[in-house]
Amino acid sequence: MSVTRTEIAHGCGVTPALISYYFKDKRSLLDAVTKPLVSVYKSRFDLIFASRQDSAGKMKAVIQLLIELSCDNAFLVDAMLNGKDGDTLDGEDRLAVACFRSTITELVRDLLNDKQWRVPDASLSELAIWGMCRILGDSLRHQSALSSDPQDALQNRIDFVYETFVTGRACPAE
Q1: pLDDT (tens digit, 9 = 90+) per residue, 23-75?
Q2: d(CA 101, CA 99)
Q3: Which residues contact 33 (CB under 8 A, 6 or more apart)?
Q4: Residue 84 — very low, low, confident or very high, per pLDDT cuts 50/70/90?
Q5: How many whole angstroms separate alpha carbon 63 and alpha carbon 14?
Q6: pLDDT band at 174 (very low <50, low <70, confident <90, very high)
Q7: What pTM was estimated for this model as a whole?
Q8: What is the number of alpha carbons within 13 Å of residue 30 lying toward its C-beta?
């Protein structure tokens, strides 16, 4: 929300007047960018939870989705996590994010109840998952140009996040 129309116009190679012509305010411009992305990620999220995978498989798929989201559209993760002021996402998208977050928390609770994860608090774990995936996705974006096998790098990050909560330690390899 802090970027100006002039900056957007220059980034797109058009005049600020053209941006103003199509988007009456920043809110409409932001919605034009975020709505299709939230829709795509919500569809992928819904597919994960509609699958017949067990809780562990679903959580690994969620972690992958969050890392990919952070790698490809980090601004959207920031908007999702910092959207309390109501200024970042519209009501429909905030509802989708609330659904993501509560469903992930429930999945953490399932893993705790099944004694697969060792974490002290499901809600804090949900936030930690978002945060870890945000940072690891960002690092994946920077590493992907250097990596010979980006899929292997992604899988290493998925395993790291998942195993952190299985072991209850920040360094699962120890």
Answers
A1: 888 778 888 888 899 999 999 999 999 999 999 999 999 999 999 999 999 88
A2: 5
A3: none
A4: low
A5: 37
A6: very low
A7: 0.83
A8: 17
Nearest Cα to Cα of residue 100 among 73, 138, 69: 69
Q: What is d(CA 55, CA 162) in angstroms, rounded to the nearest whole number?
A: 12
Q: How big is the chain, counted in residues? A: 174
Distance of alpha carbon 126 from alpha carbon 152, whole angstroms: 24
Terminal-to-terminal C-alpha distance of the chain: 42
Domain boundaries along the sequence of the chain: 31-167
> Contact at 8 Å (CB) between 161 and 136?
yes
Place domain 31-167 in its CATH homologous superfamily: Tetracycline Repressor, domain 2 (1.10.357.10)
Measure the CA–CA gap between 70 and 95, rounded to whole angstroms. Answer: 19
- DSSP alpha helices (H): ranges in 23-90? 26-50, 55-72, 74-81
- Amino acid, single-letter form, for residue 150: P
| C-alpha–C-alpha distance, residues 132 and 72, integer Å | 15
Q: Is 44 exposed, middle or buried (0-12, 13-18, 19+ CB in 10 A)?
A: middle
Token code pair at residue 138: 């960002």
